[in-house]
Amino acid sequence: MADRVLVIGSGGREHALAWKLAQSPHVKQVFVAPGNAGTADNGKISNSAVSVSNHAALAQFCRDQEIRLVVVGPEVPLAAGIVDDLTAAGVKCFGPTAKAAQLESSKSFTKAFLDRHEIPTARWKSFTDPKAACSFINSANFPALVVKASGLAAGKGVIVASNKEEACKAVNEIMQFLHKINEGPNTGGMGAYSPAPQISKDLLLKIRDTVLQKTVDGMRKEGVPYFGVLYAGLMLTKDGPKVLEFNCRFGDPECQVILPLLKSDLYEVMQAVINKKLSSSMPMWFEDNAAVTVVMASEGYPGTYPKGLEITGLSKAKELGLEVFHAGTALKDGKVVTSGGRVLTVTAIKEDLMTALQEANKGVAAINFKGAIYRKDIGYRAIAFLSQSRGLTYKNSGVDIAAGNTLVQKIKPLAAATSRSGCNAELGGFAGLFDLKAAGYKDPILVSGTDGVGTKLKIAQVCKKHDTIGQDLVAMCVNDILAQGAEPLFFLDYFACGKLDVEVAQGVIAGIAEACKKAGCALLGGETAEMPGMYPPGEYDLAGFAVGAVERGQMLPQLERIADGDVVIGVASSGVHSNGYSLVRKIVEKSSLDFSSPVGASGDQTLGDLLLTPTKIYSKTLLPVLRSGHVKAYAHITGGGLLENIPRVLPESCGVVLDALSWKIPEIFCWLHKEGNLSEEEMTRTFNCGIGAVLVVQKEMAQQVLKDIQKHEAAWLIGRVVSLQKGSAHVKVHNLLEALRANRSLSVHSHIQGKIQTNKVKVAVLISGTGTNLEALINSTKKPTSFAQIVLVVSNKAGVEGLRKAERAGIPTKVIDHKLYESRTAFDSAVDKVLEEFSVELICLAGFMRILSGPFVKKWEGKILNIHPSLLPSFKGANAHKLVLEAGVRVTGCTVHFVAEEVDAGAIIFQEAVPVKVGDTVETLSERVKEAEHRAFPAALQLVASGAVQQQVHGAPQVVQLRCISCSKQRSHSNNVYSPHKVF
């Protein structure tokens, strides 16, 4: 159940806090007391008139309104003990107690504290007598030129004097000045930027260890545990960082650049602090973004200034994609007016600091009120630093050692989990060690094998499915060394890429580690090679190396024992395994399908999924049989298929005759054979045809060995050994064509190969622009298996690229300019008339930037499809990617749905998930989601056009009715609970 939150304060900081808290799904309402114009009736956010100085009344308000968390923005309430009083009344607060807040409210307390705990700070002394202070200034053995008020001064209680006379004057009169480049009158903060490029990671760690951690530890030792924000003001000196002061709350305007970069849920983070669980729920950040905020102030600030001046241009700034946080603003007669010195802040979040600064300045230029002042040099030092010519680094060259180290740390526990007798599988050393004696060997022969996965990697990369390809790598190596009768002992991997994606690499290596456990070998080490320029973005290559051992007397094959009449046992493969994928990819390319095409009667698998079925690992299941003494030879059916692998374990005088009717050939081979028009020889020389391993055994022992194998694997007696006549083939496979036909199930025609459709549903596509999804729909409907045909493209704008794409595809187009019609209904009527002329049966909205009228939607109910760039019902509306990033979720995607009168509320047809990566921007996430849209929209159209998905139109809640083509069974799902299937 969602909670209510109260934010104390009225500045830009409090607006930013409310804005970020409101993004949490755990929060249903945010009160701000007293708030400003920006927090008045703004979605989940509203102002409250409750007195924040009367703590008893405030506590009662919190109880009455069921406030679950109070967040204190400014420093004055903290110093006044608001957290102490509310906590005593049973109200949870985020912020330090009055005693802990002395770190900000009393400079003399802070300085003494820093000295007690040996935290670096400037030399100092405190005074109550101005004469004594001036005497100290004049006699000190260091430049004592910085004068501070000990108490709170709203960020304006410090003077940096240029000489002793000025410092003495400052003792009696703290003055405010306003000027550029940090000279002249002193104001509250006039801008901020983050991150600070001048601060290295090493320096940040030093600040954490020598300042922040020591401060928190020191407060705890003194019996004053600290909860809340600790904001250190530091000076970087030749002797390292030194503390100038502490703030016990977010800075203003620093808060306005920090919170937009926070990826985590702020409400969750604050609750973790209060509940002493922050160490297990550390905040995450958008690390590849930068933020700049610029403060707009009233003329005369920090002195006297006018109030009540109308502010315009706020909507223009929002249209630029900027965040405007209000401070000194109020509502008057429905208008936003000035009410303070610092009026508002304009924040830009972009990929780099320079762009963010430029965008923030654009926002400032768009907003107007009389006499508005702001600084134009915010971030100038950072920009100057970034503009300096600095030497190249390895990271600049494209190799990120830190990312590689991160990967090693992530995969260490995966490797450790594969440990077995003989080694400990610890990564990070120069070499791995294995103790054969500890593994139980007496007179072993070492056996090694190396292999790759071939172009199966291409399919994994296209499908973005990286978790199973590691098993293929391990299987190809360990299955090979079984041919010598060897037990796999340890495995080494090689992962090469142009740019290291830690998440992808971790997924691949996690698959390798899991496969090593299945094989019974240790993942002893490996190499990750990041080589810029060697591989295109998103591509990588794999190689594997397995080492095993076999006792000298148990080695295979035993060529001298193999004779005419021996029996051949075939062990089932899981599919294509890892060979022949160049041919497979060519067949798919010339077919009517692609890797996202649905296959299988259950409708829950794509062709890509089927082809990525991992190679079987036989070591644990077959090794006991191979060691029994009853097996004369074992062959791994790898590259070269049945024809070239079986002869590798036979004496020159022997061959084998196989009967393809004796084993079950997986359906995928039947499809490859027919779609590729492959000969029998091509099938048996390229593919395993359903047999992943072959064993040669004496006829008398065949049934016993087969029985032992069948305890773990599907296996058959598939042939016999024969004496080879001169010039005869070593391997003959009888009845292959008959077997391929026999094993082609009734569902193959409709579920893998597809059926050429003649009576196609007529579809119109409505667009307003480039038509990227239109292009995907055109390509899919051109396939002979498509149930749909695009007969018309309608645009409400002339000359757009989408119209040209339709014309190039030979599709009729119409332009109906909405500006020529007095109402939406009139425009929709004109569209409807054209649709009727072309006998349209279904409508797809592909970037159509118009909201359809109620009468039009009702007429075409259940016949209009639209796509939304999120996993509905989450993140509805126009800024889905921005909302996704602000919410900090790890998965988004796209949703194809029927159109209803309420925007983005129609019944869901099809969804595809897309990961949200660390450092994603709106632009990078949008590109990834668009790729998913190009797959999802055609798939959804095929489902609806085929009749597999229908919308029932008997009232709310809307229901998607699903019809299984193969069995005509129907299932209905409310759009509240429906988990859409990809295929039927």
UniProtKB/TrEMBL annotation:
Domain ATP-grasp positions: 111-166, 228-275
Gene Ontology CC annotation, any one: cytosol
MF terms per GO, please? Answer: ATP binding; metal ion binding; phosphoribosylamine-glycine ligase activity; phosphoribosylformylglycinamidine cyclo-ligase activity; phosphoribosylglycinamide formyltransferase activity
Q: Which InterPro entries match?
A: ATP-grasp, Formyl_transf_N, Formyl_transf_N_sf, GART, GART_AS, PreATP-grasp_dom_sf, PRibGlycinamid_synth_ATP-grasp, PRibGlycinamide_synth
Recorded metabolic or biological pathway in which this protein acts: Purine metabolism; IMP biosynthesis via de novo pathway; 5-amino-1-(5-phospho-D-ribosyl)imidazole from N(2)-formyl-N(1)-(5-phospho-D-ribosyl)glycinamide: step 2/2; Purine metabolism; IMP biosynthesis via de novo pathway; N(1)-(5-phospho-D-ribosyl)glycinamide from 5-phospho-alpha-D-ribose 1-diphosphate: step 2/2; Purine metabolism; IMP biosynthesis via de novo pathway; N(2)-formyl-N(1)-(5-phospho-D-ribosyl)glycinamide from N(1)-(5-phospho-D-ribosyl)glycinamide (10-formyl THF route): step 1/1
Name the Pfam families for this protein: AIRS, AIRS_C, Formyl_trans_N, GARS_A, GARS_C, GARS_N
Example GO BP = adenine biosynthetic process
Superkingdom classification of source: Eukaryota
EC number(s) recorded for this UniProt protein: 2.1.2.2, 6.3.3.1, 6.3.4.13
CDD domains for the chain: FMT_core_GART (cd08645), PurM (cd02196)
Q: Which UniProt keywords apply?
A: ATP-binding, Ligase, Manganese, Metal-binding, Multifunctional enzyme, Nucleotide-binding, Purine biosynthesis, Transferase
Classification via PANTHER family: TRIFUNCTIONAL PURINE BIOSYNTHETIC PROTEIN ADENOSINE-3 (PTHR10520:SF12), TRIFUNCTIONAL PURINE BIOSYNTHETIC PROTEIN ADENOSINE-3-RELATED (PTHR10520)
Family under the similarity heading: In the central section; belongs to the AIR synthase family.
Assembly and partners are described as:
Homodimer.
- Protein name stated in the entry: Trifunctional purine biosynthetic protein adenosine-3
Give the taxonomic lineage as stored in the record.
Eukaryota, Metazoa, Chordata, Craniata, Vertebrata
